[in-house]
Structures are given as C-alpha cells and as structure tokens.
Amino acid sequence: MRLIAILLLAAASLSAQSWKALEFLLGNWTGAAGEKDTQIGAGQGEFSFTLDLDSKIIVRRNSARYTSGVAHDDLLIVYTEGATRAIYFDTEGHVIHYNVRVPGENRAVFESDGTPKYRLTYWLDHGSLNGRFEIADKPYMTWISKRSPAKK
C-alpha cells in the first residue's frame, strides 16, 4: 500500500514537471498578423494556453478575425503519451496530429504526422510570444502576441 502511494505521488510530480519546458506558453495572449502575413488579410485574435484536467493536459483556445471577413476558431490539446503530442481541431473541420518538441528555451515546435506537413512554431522574444504556421515548409502566417489579462 505504501509503495502504491509513493508511485502515485511520483506520477503526479512527473506530470506537473513535464510541462516545465512549455510553461512560457501559459497565459492569455492578444495578437495581430499583418496584412502581408496571411493569405486572408490582416488579422486580430486572442488565444490562451491553460493547464487543465489536474495539469494532465495543456489546452489552447484560439479565436481570430480577418479583414477579409473570415472568422477562425480552433482548439489545441497538448498531452503526453510517451512523448509530448498534440491534437488540433478548427471550425473548418481540420484535425491535425502533432509531435511536439522543444529545441531550445522558450521555443516550441509542433510538427504534423501526415501530408501535407504542418508546422506551428512559438517562441518568446522580449515578452512577446511570436508564432509562425507553415504548410509543406512554406510560411502561411506569422504573428506577434502580447500577454493580456485573464478573462473573468
């Protein structure tokens, strides 16, 4: 019985520790993509990265609006299953499975399994959370985000 309690405590500790490298993402962010940074016009959006399910997963909720009139909402769930993985869903019906790696401090890269290859990269730069989304190694969109207050 004592061994089981020790193992459960160790597992809980590992779960909390496993997010250390992605901690820089956590919080609420407001961002903008310039007119030349998207194929659908300039955009404004907000997103959040939060720990959920007793810190077992990280959830990103994103909402963006573009000058072309396009609205985009999506959900990204980051989890560990041996390695760190993520699954993405959006209002256009896309579902993307990602492998997640942390190539350096305050940098995360989400790369898809399938074809075409999707890559979502985040990096912290002087308090701004920058992002880039690529399809088949071609830039599709870049943005700069600032931390915003939590919604009530």
Which keywords apply here?
disordered N terminus; Lipocalin; 152 residues; mainly beta; 10 strands; globular; ten-stranded antiparallel barrel
The top-level CATH class is Mainly Beta
* Architecture per CATH nomenclature, i.e. the level-2 architecture: Beta Barrel
- Topology pattern, helix = H, strand = E: HEEEEEEEEEE
Show unreliable segments.
Answer: 1-17
What is this entry, summarized?
This protein is mostly beta strands. The protein has a single domain (2-148), classed as Lipocalin.
Description:
There is one protein chain. This protein has 152 residues and is mainly beta. It is built from 1 helix and 10 strands. Strands 1-2-3-4-5-6-7-8-9-10 form a 10-stranded antiparallel β-barrel.
List the helices and strands and how they pair.
Blueprint (H helix, E strand, L loop, with lengths): L1 H16 L9 E7 L9 E10 L4 E10 L4 E11 L1 E8 L4 E10 L2 E6 L5 E8 L2 E8 L2 E11 L4
Antiparallel strand pairs: 1-2, 1-10, 2-3, 3-4, 4-5, 5-6, 6-7, 7-8, 8-9, 9-10
